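Ticket #4471: structure export looks truncated?
Reporter: QA, pipeline team
Priority: medium

Steps to reproduce: submit the single chain below to the structure queue and open the exported record.
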Amino acid sequence: MKTPHPPQLISTIVMKMMACQFCHICASSPCEWEEFGPDVKEQIKLLYFRQEEDGKEIIIDENGVEVNNNTMRKHSYRFFTRLKHGHLGKGNRMNIPLCVIDEIRKLFPEEKEEDHIGFQEK
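Actual output as written to the record:
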């Protein structure tokens, strides 16, 4: 017959499990956005600039050309993938965790939510 675990051991195990930082969206530990997001944001800041034009904030590239949020999202997804997996090569694609997609969409929202096309197999 098995002896039950003492209550203090059980509470220690539960506390350790609760201390693990699991992402509530993708269930990764650590959260992929928390791990790679700061570097993605830093890369964006190095390559693109925000400025005010006619009372509206716009994003421009190093050549002074305005860049829309759709392009910024795509570049952010690419930066994330390269940071996490390295260069995949032409035509090679991978799914991006939902937590990363959500955070990038918050940074660069589309005017209408239905305009997001999502991941498409090649």
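Status: closed, not a bug. The export was complete when the record was re-opened. Leaving a note from the reviewer for reference: The first strand starts at residue 49 and ends at 53.
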